[in-house]
Specification:
- The complex is a heterodimer of chains A (112) and B (110).
- Chain A is mainly beta and 112 residues long.
- Chain A is 0% helix and 57% strand.
- In chain A, strands 2, 4, 5, 6, 9, 10 and 11 form a 7-stranded mixed β-sheet that branches. A 4-stranded antiparallel β-sheet of chain A has the order 1-3-8-7, with no helix packed on it.
- The N and C termini of chain A lie far apart (34 Å).
- In chain B, strand 9 and strand 10 form a beta hairpin.
- The chains are: A mainly beta (112), B mainly beta (110).
- At the A-B interface, strand 5 and strand 10 of A face strand 4, strand 5, strand 9 and strand 10 of B.
Chain lengths: 112, 110
Amino acid sequence: DTAVSQTPKYLVTQMGNDKSIKCEQNLGHDTMYWYKQDSKKFLKIMFSYNNKELIINETVPNRFSPKSPDKAHLNLHINSLELGDSAVYFCASGGQGADTQYFGPGTRLTVL
Amino acid sequence: EDQVTQSPEALRLQEGESSSLNCSYTVSGLRGLFWYRQDPGKGPEFLFTLYSAGEEKEKERLKATLTKKESFLHITAPKPEDSATYLCAVQGTGGFKTIFGAGTRLFVKA
């Protein structure tokens, strides 16, 4: 059973397009996260939702919009894609506070 | 601002050659310090959580220790399958944001 799953695994698209990445967790966690890992492998928090409520919203362009239809799902929609958006995006789930976070396999986004 | 610095950036070991990875951190009140392992093309995999200075945790050939300013990940008699990037992260009491270091890439040669 996959604990945290993401689709798609690879996403290649043209500049200016709009795309979405989906994430689902079956661990029963209340909190889900989106991270961006750049080419230097730095993992940086973007957003966090707790029970469908946004609790962390880092300084990211407003072209990025997370959506949590229920506590098991957290999707990431990106408008007007730019070259600099190319990275690997990881979804994670866990408890609030100093709790273990479980990561998905990542989505490698390439903007041409 | 919370900060995590890992050293070295890369470490090459022979099989069986023990060593340590360092994680220095600055945080306004530590809620927890985490170690993760990341293999190429995969998501980080949880290894340990440490909560207070003096705490130690072990798993197979890995042992994590914590002081008030840094954490060490000791690798005893490593094997080639231990080759991966090891990530350190902290969460402070000021919020729920987890800050990751840049990682140490470990290569173990047979």
